[in-house]
Amino acid sequence: MKPEELTAMAEKVRKQDAHFSHHIHVCTESGCVSSQSDVLLKNITDEVQQRGLKGKVCVKGVGCMGLCCNGPLLKADDTMYQFVKPEDAGAIVDSLTSTPVVELVCDTKQPFFARQKLIVRENAGHIDPESIADCVAHGAYRALLKVLTSMTPQQVIAEVSESGLRGRGGAGFPTGLKWSTVSKAGGKTKYVICNGDEGDPGAFMDRSVMEGDPHRVLEGMAIGAYAVGAGQGIIYVRAEYPLAVKRLTRAINQARREGLLGHGLFGSNFDFNVEIRLGAGAFVCGEETALIASVEGKRGMPRPRPPYPANSGLHGCPTLINNVETFANIPAIMERGGKWFATIGTEKSKGTKIFALTGKIKNTGLIEVPMGIPLREIIYDIAGGIPDGKAFKAVQTGGPSGGCIPAEHLDITVDYESLTKLGSIMGSGGMIVMDETSNMVDVARFFMEFCMTESCGKCVPCRVGTYEMHELLDRICKRQATMADLNLLKELCDMVKQTSLCGLGQSAPNPVLSTLRYFENEYLKLIQSSPASHAGDGDHHVALEVLS
Amino acid sequence: MNTPVDIATESITLRIDDKDVSCRKGETVLQVARENGIDIPTLCYMEGLTVWGGCRLCMVEIAGSPKLQAACATVCTEGMIISTQSPRLENYRRMIVELLFAERNHVCSVCVSNGHCELQTMAVKLGIDHVRFAYRFPHLEVDNSHDRMRMDHNRCILCTRCVRVCAEIEGAHTKDIKGRGVLAAIIHDLDQNWGESSTCTSCGKCVNICPTGALTHRGTAVGEMTKKTTFLPYLTLMREAQP
Amino acid sequence: MTTPTAKPTVATVWLDGCSGCHMSFLDLDERLITLAGLVDVLHSPVVDQKQFPQQVDLTLVEGAVSSEEDLHKALIIRARSKLVVALGDCAVTGNVPAMRNYFDRSDLFARAYVENAQEPTTPEERRVVLPVLGVPPLRPHATALHEVIKVDMFLPGCPPPADAIWYLLTEILAGRTPATTTVSRFGK
């Protein structure tokens, strides 16, 4: 594709759009589709057709609008509707020319929408992820065009470094530094890998980005490839995300057909291709070295680092691995500049972060908020607080590798540093809110069970340690444990954390450690109420003295 | 391979357990420690095979590094200060070996390898007199299908030395791993009986390299010694025939 | 029965094991005479006293905890002993008695009392009944002693050699914690 063709393509869609006097956008991501938004979309299309409004009303399926608990969501011109059933299609179409369907209206002025700051998800709800033309009309590939026609790879990396963007996969490694390491690594062949192996329970940020704006991910990858000197990209997506796989595959095919992937993009001598690799759903394949092994067709198991993938990754070549959300931030940074991006967020955590809100809160769904937002604001304003008049107890962030933050720390700001300081992590963005009825030992046991079944089995501390930690937690939950068991659990947590091979094992004890940190009384209560299975807990040194 | 080595740039000096040592570029902490008579315990490491880094017994402390590092997988760098022994490391090592004992059914008293087993020896070395963790007692099979060798999953510690020797040295790659976590297990070909494997060359390297009694030659188990008594009547007959 | 004495009192108990550890204990040979001068053995398979004494200084326990009776005994031992030592692999790890743990109890009973039983000849024999009366129920798993009570010291070995037992006893009587892995190991 030549530069001017991109503008022409966008212009053409905009011209077509000008003919429409009304727009109906229906969410077609997994959450809403599971409550029949696909049928709803079809019904609306039919209703429009029957009324002979085909040329006047634009009906399209779009990405996630965030408030998943109230789905299916739909936007008819400027009015948002919630809980829309397929049979409401007629009424919605009628409302375009009369008054809104009051009982279905969703207030877009509520804090859930008003407090968000959209960068990665700016087009979700506006574009049809299955149409490259629609995406281009909303600015897709404009950043790539700018990069390829006016920037050197070094400038791109400098821009990313200046933005302060950090990896959104969990660890928060500075993206600019990673890019520059791969760029400096020797070797002709380099790879770019997009990690879409999102596996935390209750997290669906990356799925949403891939389903709702797949071209943004491809564009970010292409810019990354240009910056580090790679020619081949791989998106590693778990097979449990069929819709994401479908949309990405379609996006790749469309981009290839339009010449936005392939040889000599925008007339430059930069070639870039992308292929999809499906993961079989192993959590550990989110770890970069395990992911690479899996892409290579081997068993998905991590290996000791160094060497880091930046120097020796896929097939032994320098490889840039970033998370979906990280790549999706890149086009905005390239278009508006690193300096602009760095104005958002805190001193060390820049930009926005997408969180998946789940658990005991009124509004569950996806939010994108600036880094540094107070946790209280997320829980009580955006998420609408705890339902049924219950009290907030804790929020779990970072999934099985993360920890719990109790009520007394509700006023912290949400950024990499402050979450780590409290014994949790930012992670990929899962937030599970728990109310006063939650049993924190049970929570720890749940996450430990997850780690136990997801351990690859390579290193002993993780393979057997997670099993034994789960066993001890289970005993405590069943009121069969003693203080000796609790002490053993603490010792084991420390050992597994310090000696495990990869991040899965190193962080597996986190849910236990953080619940112990804030809710040790719950552990103690369960132990004290267990029938004494160990008699005579005396110190044998005393006996020795007596004997001698 | 006869390129002259520039000693100045190719050699590295470092300190292991208060001992100044030097080595060539690219050598690992484990190699250098062992060359200098410093013992770091290992179970999955095997000289001549690729580094696995799974047993985590060789974790060492490196000054300036917040994390422990596996000596087998850490390449020496100039000026490194390493300690291979500390109460903390010994405690971790003990726990790891205890976990291995708890994971499967290691009944030393009835094991063919009793007395020459690396796991058993490691327990003695680390002063393990009992296992604090709950034993799993899994129900595991013995693969008795090969006519010369035997795989007893009860005694396997998943060090994968057999997998690596089979793939890297013999070149057969008969063995590999299936399953996750504690359910992981060594398999032959596509999880077939060993005796039905079409790739196994029966070279026996896996048996010799196995640290425990998981892989053994047939005929060596307790009670497998067959007695041949038929010679007796002949001897008696010959004696009687003498004048 | 437990007359107060100046000498430390000792008991030895045989739970689910082969008695090999007690045989090894008897292998102390002439040192048994010396030992008799140092301690009073109040209760043991080799002495007459059948009830476990009310109070004892040191108890050596052989065998795994396999039945409800074993558990009952273990709890009594713990309550009445100042120092409990797991003697030998069965008490320390579960060892051979624990090899039944990989199977379901009903399968075990079927194997022991039905499949491996003699060909029945009389009508009574044909009515296969698992023994219940007077037989302590089997626990789901045979376990190490420290899984049910707090154990102060462990002497592994199958059996622990007599020298190791002697070392253990003399160290304890000298008021020291014995380093048992220097004299014995699992499976020795």
Write a structural description.
The complex is a heterotrimer of chains A (548), B (243) and C (188). Chain A is of the alpha/beta class. Chain A folds into 4 domains: 18-107, Glutaredoxin (3-Layer(aba) Sandwich), CATH 3.40.30.10; 139-342, Rossmann fold; 352-435, Ubiquitin-like (UB roll) (Roll); 440-528, de novo design (two linked rop proteins). Helices cover 44% and strands 14% of the residues of chain A. In chain A, a hairpin with a 2-residue loop joins strand 3 and strand 4. The model of chain A is unreliable at 533-544 (pLDDT under 50). In chain B, the strands form 3 sheets. Chain B has a 5-stranded mixed β-sheet. In chain B, strands 6-7-10 form a 3-stranded antiparallel β-sheet. In chain B, strand 6 and strand 7 form a beta hairpin. Chain C has 188 residues and is of the alpha/beta class. Chain C has helices at 20-26, 31-38, 68-80, 89-93, 105-115, 123-126, 162-173, and strands spanning 9-14, 40-43, 56-62, 65-67, 81-87, 138-143, 153-155. Chains in contact: A-B, A-C, B-C. Chain A binds chain B through residues 282, 299, 303-304, 306, 452-461, 463-468, 471, 488, 491-492, 495, 498-501, and chain B through 51-56, 59, 67-68, 70, 73-75, 91-92, 95-96, 99-100, 102-103, 132-134, 136, 157-158, 176-177, 179-184.
Chain pair forming the biggest interface: A-B, 30 and 35 residues
Main beta-sheet strand count, sense and barrel state of chain B: 5 strands, mixed
Main sheet of chain A? 5 strands, mixed
Determine the CATH superfamily of the largest domain in chain A. NADH-ubiquinone oxidoreductase 51kDa subunit
**What is the class of the largest domain in chain B in the CATH system?**
Alpha Beta
What portion of residues of chain B is helical? Answer: 25-40%
The averaged pLDDT of chain B comes out at 92
Based on DSSP secondary structure assignment, what is the total number of beta strands of chain A?
A: 14
CATH class of the largest domain in chain A: Alpha Beta
- Kindly name the structural category of chain B: alpha+beta
What percent strand of chain A? 5-15%
